[in-house]
Design a protein that fits this description.
Layout: H1 3-13, H2 50-53, H3 80-84, H4 121-124, H5 137-141, H6 159-171, H7 183-193, H8 196-207, E1 216-220, E2 222-223, E3 226-229, E4 232-235, E5 242-243, E6 249-252, E7 267-272, H9 275-285, H10 301-305, H11 323-335, H12 343-351, H13 355-367
Helix pairs in contact: 1-12, 6-7, 6-8, 9-13, 11-12, 11-13
Length: about 375
């Protein structure tokens, strides 16, 4: 088994292998957990994959982010009357929504309610403990659990793994290398407010979801011209005029598709030409031959994640996941922003991966069925 694939296995297992005694009551915050990481100096992050974080500049010392908004968020660039007018439709759905409905954190748009199981209250409206600051799980992660490139795809995650991630946010073991990334403090606030019953209800619901359309991978030398909207890339035309270089760009799939949270519309990812095969070779042959940490025994990733990397027991599936998300997690582990029970064992391996290797590995894993 390659050490690169071993790393991916161990990385994802960091928060899952200690689940034997997981109960419906998430444990209390660990007072010994590390404090949120401060921003690193730019020279220490010279290899940071900015594209994976949806940013254009390196973080600077002192950079921070606050939790995201709540309630109905009106767009100041659009008239209030236009935002309240029910004019949005998607093919195949009898429902109609107003533009403001797409920006309501506590009431998730549901175009096809017959296509999924009933959503738990916390998934559709958010944790009751947050009151007027409620934020629905499905607002960011979508009803299907597919998420968006700037956050996590959570469909099909084992219940124990899901609960462990909430505890990691709660106790300060999971942050972002970019301290400006607002969905991290948002998740911390949610994790600290959510009740054990709400957490388990959300975990069990998303464990059964498919993630909607799988991400479409396109190898290319060029991509359409782009702009950033928050931490999400948006194409400004359909012509591929911009060099892709050594990055991956995830975009809403479909020509001239406007985001209206249609679960039938997924995302596509432009990956460097040849990246999938390079990633396959890296996974098969390893990268720099990083040794296993003292006192540990390397095990095949298939032992944890299944023969096709579709997950096994509490270990999460890897195949077909957002490549932006995969690279962010690899880099966060490398910088120590994401800390799990096996972090001291895995960090030396992660530290030997270049961002180019991470990019190719993510392109390959994302392409797997």
């Amino acid at each position: 088994m390659s050490r690169t694939l071993m790393f991916v296995c161990l990385w994802m297992a960091a928060s899952t292998c200690a689940q034997a005694d997981q109960t419906s009551n998430p444990p209390q915050a660990d007072v010994r957990s590390p404090a949120p990481p401060s921003a690193r100096a730019s020279d220490a992050l010279a290899d940071m994959p900015l594209w994976a974080y949806g940013i254009a500049t390196l973080p600077q010392p002192g950079d921070t982010a606050k939790p995201q908004g709540w309630g109905r968020q009106f767009n100041p660039a659009m008239s209030r009357d236009d935002q309240l007018r029910p004019v949005l439709h998607v093919a195949g759905s009898p429902r109609t929504y107003a533009p403001i409905d797409l920006n309501d954190w506590a009431n998730v748009v549901d175009w096809f309610p017959d296509e999924h199981a009933p959503m738990p209250e916390v998934v559709q409206h958010g944790s009751a403990a947050l009151g007027e600051r409620r934020r629905a799980c499905a607002f960011c992660h979508r009803i299907s659990g597919g998420g968006r490139p700037e956050n996590a795809p959570i469909a099909g995650l084992p219940v124990e793994y899901f609960l462990r991630q909430l505890e990691d946010f709660r106790s300060g073991r999971r942050h972002s290398t970019d301290p400006r990334k607002p969905n991290v403090p948002t998740m911390i606030e949610i994790a600290r407010a959510i009740s054990p019953d709400e957490a388990r209800a959300a975990a069990e619901y998303y464990a059964k979801q498919s993630g909607a359309p799988r991400i479409r991978i396109v190898e290319s030398d060029r991509v359409p011209p782009l702009r950033l909207r928050g931490n999400l890339f948006v194409a400004t035309s359909q012509e591929r005029t911009e060099p892709l270089a050594d990055r991956i760009v995830e975009l809403l799939d479909g020509e001239n598709e406007q985001f209206n949270d249609n679960p039938h519309v997924g995302y596509m990812a432009y990956v460097p030409r040849g990246g999938i095969e390079r990633g396959r070779a890296l996974v098969a042959a390893g990268t720099s031959g990083a040794p296993a940490a003292a006192g540990t025994t390397a095990q095949p990733c298939t032992a944890c994640h299944g023969t096709e990397l579709h997950g096994l027991g509490p270990a999460p599936p890897l195949a077909g996941r957002s490549p932006s998300y995969l690279v962010r997690q690899l880099y966060d582990f490398k910088t120590g922003s994401r800390v799990g029970s096996l972090a001291p064992l895995m960090k030396p391996v992660a530290s030997r991966l270049t961002t180019q290797q991470m990019t190719d590995i993510a392109a390959y894993i994302a392409s797997l069925p």
